[in-house]
Specification:
Strand order of the largest sheet: 3-2-1-4-5-6-10
Strand content: 15-25%
Helix content: 25-40%
Oligomer: single chain
CATH superfamily of the largest domain: NAD(P)-binding Rossmann-like Domain
CATH class of the largest domain: Alpha Beta
Number of helices: 10
Structural class: alpha/beta
Distance between the termini: 28 Å
CATH topology of the largest domain: Rossmann fold
Largest sheet: 7 strands, parallel
Order of helices and strands: EHEEHEHHEHEEHEEHEEHEEHH
Shape: globular
CATH architecture of the largest domain: 3-Layer(aba) Sandwich
C-alpha cells in the first residue's frame, strides 16, 4: 500500500516508516520538520509540508495514490499544553480536521491515529482498559480525545475507517538501535536518565518518593517503539473490515522511576547523581495498560517485554549519537 505517514520524521513516525518499508509497503513521509529530523528518514521519500495546508495535502493524497494515512504529527508536551492550549488545539485538533477533510475529498478511507493514555486523565482503576471514563486533565489529552470523537462521528458517515491507538510510554530505539529518540527539549524519562549517565545532565530528579507504590516512586508502563509500531501495522490490516478500532498499547507491566534509574545504571555501567524532590502536581501513582484487547483481536505480541532490553536499544542509539540527529 501507498501510505502517507504524517509526522513521519519524528520519533514514532520514523520508526513506523522503517517498519512499513521493511513490510513491503510504500511509505511517503509528510512532515514540516518543526520537530522531526531528515536524518531519521534517510532513504525514504519526504515531502516537507504542514498539515494546515489543505491544498498540498489534497495534491499529495491524489498524486501519490495514497491508500491509507498514519498520523503522528502532534505536539506532545503536557506542561507546554497547559501554557499554550490554543497552539495544541490548533496543531493536534484543527490540523487533523484539515487532514480528514483532505482524505474525504480524495476518497482515502483508512486512518491510523496516534492517540494517548492521557485521554483517561486520572483513572480510578489500573490497569487501564479501553472502556474506562475518558476525562483528560490537560489540553494535550483533551486535544487527542477530541480527535478520537471526530473520527468516531466521521466513521458513522461511512467515509472513514479508523484505528485510535492509545499509547502509554513509548521508548527505546528501533532498527537495531539506529532510529532513536531525539526531542528538543527532552521530557521522557529514559532519555533523560541516559543523558545523566552520559554526563550531559548534572543529575536526574525523582519527583516524589512517598507514593503508595512498592518503592515510593511513580510506576509507569514502558513499551518499546518497535512493539508499538507493530500494533499499527496489525491495526491497519484490520481496517479492511472494520470502521472503528480502539486499542491501548502498553507493556501491561509497570516499572517505577527507581526501577528505570537502576536499569540504566546496569545497562550503561555508569553512575550519576539522583536528586529527590517534591511531587509534581497531577502525577498519578500508577499508570499501566491493559492491552488484552489488542493481543486478542490483533494477535499482537511483544518483542521487547523486558525493561532492560528496551534500555539497551536506547543506550545503543544515544551512545552512537550523543548530540542527537545532525539535521
Amino acid at each position: 500500500m501507498n501510505i502517507l505517514v504524517c509526522g513521519g520524521a519524528g520519533y514514532i513516525g520514523s520508526n513506523m516508516t522503517a517498519i512499513l518499508a521493511s513490510s513491503g509497503h510504500k511509505p511517503i513521509v509528510y512532515d514540516n520538520l518543526s520537530k522531526g529530523h531528515r536524518d531519521a528518514v534517510k532513504g525514504q521519500e519526504l515531502i516537507e509540508g504542514d498539515l494546515a495546508d489543505f491544498d498540498l495535502l489534497t495534491k499529495v493524497l491524489k498524486d501519490k495514490k495514497i491508500e491509507a494515512v498514519m498520523h503522528f504529527a502532534a505536539f506532545i508536551e503536557v506542561g507546554e499544553s497547559c501554557e499554550k492550549p490554543l497552539e495544541y488545539y490548533r496543531n493536534n485538533f484543527s490540523n487533523t480536521r484539515t487532514l480528514l477533510e483532505a482524505m474525504e475529498k480524495t476518497g482515502v478511507r483508512k486512518f491510523v491515529f496516534s492517540s494517548t493514555a492521557a485521554t483517561y486523565g486520572m483513572p480510578k482503576t489500573v490497569p487501564i482498559t479501553e472502556d474506562l471514563l475518558k476525562d483528560p486533565i490537560n489540553p494535550y489529552g483533551e486535544s487527542k480525545w477530541a480527535v478520537e470523537r471526530m473520527c468516531h462521528f466521521q466513521s458513522l458517515t461511512g467515509r472513514l475507517n479508523y484505528a485510535a491507538l492509545r499509547y502509554f510510554n513509548a521508548c527505546g530505539a528501533g532498527g537495531n538501535g539506529t532510529i532513536g529518540e531525539d526531542h528538543k527539549p527532552e521530557s521522557h524519562l529514559i532519555p533523560l536518565i541516559i543523558a545523566a549517565a552520559m554526563g550531559k545532565r548534572a543529575d536526574i530528579k525523582v519527583f516524589g518518593t512517598d507514593y503508595p507504590t512498592p518503592d515510593g516512586t511513580c510506576v509507569r508502563d514502558y513499551i518499546h517503539i518497535e512493539d508499538l509500531c507493530s500494533a499499527h501495522l496489525l491495526a491497519l490490516e484490520k481496517l479492511d473490515k472494520n470502521s472503528e478500532l480502539v486499542y491501548n498499547l502498553g507493556n501491561g507491566k509497570g516499572y517505577s522511576v527507581r526501577d528505570v534509574i537502576e536499569t540504566v545504571k546496569k545497562v550503561t555501567g555508569k553512575d550519576f547523581k539522583v536528586t529527590e524532590v517534591a511531587r509534581r502536581a497531577g502525577d498519578p501513582p500508577v499508570l499501566t495498560a491493559d492491552a488484552t484487547k489488542a493481543v486478542k483481536e490483533l494477535g499482537w505480541k511483544l518483542k521487547y517485554p523486558q525493561l532492560e532490553k528496551i534500555v539497551e536499544t536506547a543506550w545503543l542509539w544515544h551512545s552512537k549519537n550523543p548530540e542527537g540527529y545532525k539535521k
